[in-house]
Design brief:
Blueprint (H helix, E strand, L loop, with lengths): L17 E5 L2 E5 L7 E6 L6 H12 L1 H6 L2 E7 L3 H14 L1 E2 L2 E2 L7 E3 L4 H5 L14 E6 L5 E7 L7 H17 L13 E3 L5 H8 L7 E4 L2 E4 L3 H7 L3
Parallel strand pairs: 3-4, 4-7
Antiparallel strand pairs: 1-2, 3-8, 5-6, 8-9, 10-12, 11-12
Length: about 230
Amino acid sequence: MENQVKAMPRIGDLAPEFKAVTTQGEINFPSDYTGKWKILFSHPADFTPVCTSEFMTFASMQADFEKLNCQLVGLSVDGLHSHIAWLRTIHDKIDWNGLKNMEVKFPLIVDITMEVANLYGMIQPGESNTSAVRAVFFVDPSNRIRTIMYYPLSLGRNFDEIKRVLIGLQTVDNFGVALPADWRPGKEVIVPPAGSCGVAKSRMEGEEKDLHCYDWFFCTKQISKEEVEAKLGK
């Protein structure tokens, strides 16, 4: 029976549960990592150049993600022996962009049947019927999907942006704010719009402390980089 292409989960949904064999043993996702942030990401195939560059980059940043209380989990539709051989090749032979001897310690899911890839909408026939696109799912400590990114097979991901999104989501939760375009820790954050005309008027007249209002619906305040970073990963 042919694999059925399923719609991907949406932002705000609980992350679909699955059990899988990985390079680090069997896992139950996301329940094994409840209480942590999770980044579940797919790549098209082992022994391909774009995927190799991405896994080396993820491996080089693994400690950064661990400090943010985040578990990385990779996936492709290859088998376990292929995964192991590819990761060994990355460690033993690939010297790229100043990275070498990179050891991938996070689990890489075996998904030959494409069961997980279909469950998460990673198989997109307009791009490929047999390989997962470059999907990234951000799942919070309560196992709810918070952000989804999709890239085509030919375009490697921006890992600075992946880390920025994770930091941003934690900051939104920690401070009850929204974040403007290109936000980085230390920049102003957005205070959600007030719910009543009286509060809006007090904002514009400067009665609310530490707010900078461009108009009644657009007010910001400063949270220092140190304040943001002190709460990350908590």
